[in-house]
Amino acid sequence: MLTKNKKLSLKNFNSKDEYSIDKAIDIIRNITYTKFDSSFDLSISLDITFRKSEHLIEDFVLLPYGTGKHTKILVFCEPEKEVKIKDLNVDYFGLENYIKKIKNGWLDFDVIITTPELMSKLVEIGKILGPKKLMPSFKSNTITLDIAKSVKDIRIGRVNFKIDKTGILNTSIGRFSFSNKQIKDNLSSLVNKIITFKTSLKSFRIKNIVLSSTMSQGVHIDKKCLFNN
User: Fold this and answer.
1) For the chain, what is the domain count?
2) What is the C-alpha end-to-end distance of the chain, expressed in Å?
């Protein structure tokens, strides 16, 4: 049964209108009916022209409050380094055994971290990882000589993202258990990071910024709340 506030929110909410960040967050809270700790999800649509294919946007951002989700980390490492990796806060580590598991369809992880010298080992599973956006890269700092730092950054709130030629980015920026300020700060951090790519593109315009939850309609955010578009 819908509460009075939820009925009022649906009545006053127009999916074609744009709202301030604070208003959008409140609307999402009132039009989401799940009983679990839903995620706040952000979708950004860019009107961009890439100078070169290698300019496809791929990077990471440190969200000040993280996403509230446990990120399952798989570290590819040589057997002699497994003792050190075991002491890090990772979910899986190894090499040949996990390559074999992935070949057999196992994908129960969110991110892979490895070192440059092991990338040749991943070529045979590249066709599996690539379409799932799970392939490590230097730009996302998942190919690194400092695995410990990369793991630490992910645990404190690093989010890797990639925007391809379609110009769409979808990512989680928090949970319902977060305060409105935490969601707003995370959202602003991500958008500010995206804006830094303006200088490497022929054209750059954010067409739409839409906030939603795990099972809600999307709420369009007024871009003027973040920057002069």
Assistant:
1) 2
2) 41
Do 37 and 150 belong together in one domain? no
In a domain, 182, yes or no: yes
Residues 175 and 149 in one domain: no
Q: Which residues does 169 contact at the CB level (< 8 Å), separation at least 6?
A: 42, 43, 44, 46, 57, 161, 162, 163, 194
- What is the reported pTM? 0.79
Strands 111-113 and 73-76: parallel
Interatomic CA distance for residues 118 and 164, integer angstroms: 25
Asked whether the beta carbons of 113 and 71 are under 8 A apart, the reply is no
DSSP the chain: ---HHHHHHHHH--TTSEE-HHHHHHHHHHH---SS-PEEEEEEEEEEEESSGGGSEEEEEE-TT--SSPPPEEEE--GGGHHHHHTSS-SEEESHHHHHHHHTT----SEEEB-GGGGGGGGGGHHHHTTTT----TTTT-B-S-HHHHHHHHHHTEEEEEE-TT-EEEEEEEETTS-HHHHHHHHHHHHHHHHGGGGGEEEEEEEEEEEEETTS--EEE-GGGT---
| Final residue of a structural domain among 104, 130, 155 | 155
pLDDT tens digit sequence for 73-114: 999 999 999 999 999 989 999 999 999 999 999 999 999 999
The CATH number assigned to the domain holding 44 equals 3.30.190.20
Residues 60 and 162 in one domain: yes
- Same domain? For 43 and 54 the reply is yes
